């Protein structure tokens, strides 16, 4: 793909002395950034570190967002990829990493508005950070694991995102495997504020994480941004 974006790697300091390996994807011509959204940055949070999740899984979506004129950021949470520290089972320490990256972007990249996007187990982690950063203006989850087994690990994250007044979009394949469509709908009944769902017919959890759905997911994210 002829690259109409650039990628810069940097290290972001999180709590407990953790250093987060971070990549900033920018449109090549900064002047061509999308209309008034020049100060919007999309921060992508990767799937479960302990199952091998790392920022590389989000490279496709970040690249496509940058190609469309948006700044997008991926990073390895603690203990994943090249980041230091240790991954946790329930993802609560990782929430601090999301917050640290958002604050770093506000200070160093002039991010006035941030959209948090979490993939799989990254969705509960990102969801718990939404109300901890005032610059976050919205949230997109890609395959939030609301199902019973996943809730043993991530159940304590649910309340934070469901009780947030910020606009939320839940994207899920109808054959997710971790969460059924009825479980998703039931869970979102308690959500406050603007809450939307986008179901991708016949797609499983790990299929949606795969590169063949990057373009579709990118378009869904862009549509949500234009509605904010």
Automatic annotation (TrEMBL):
Classification of source organism: Eukaryota, Viridiplantae, Streptophyta, Embryophyta, Tracheophyta
Pfam families: Peptidase_S15 (PF02129)
GO molecular function: hydrolase activity
Gene3D superfamilies from the UniProt entry: alpha/beta hydrolase
Protein name: Xaa-Pro dipeptidyl-peptidase-like domain-containing protein
Source organism of this protein record: Arabidopsis lyrata subsp. lyrata (Lyre-leaved rock-cress)
Lineage: superkingdom: Eukaryota
InterPro entries in UniProt: AB_hydrolase_fold, Xaa-Pro-like_dom
Residue stretches making up the Xaa-Pro dipeptidyl-peptidase-like domain: 16-108
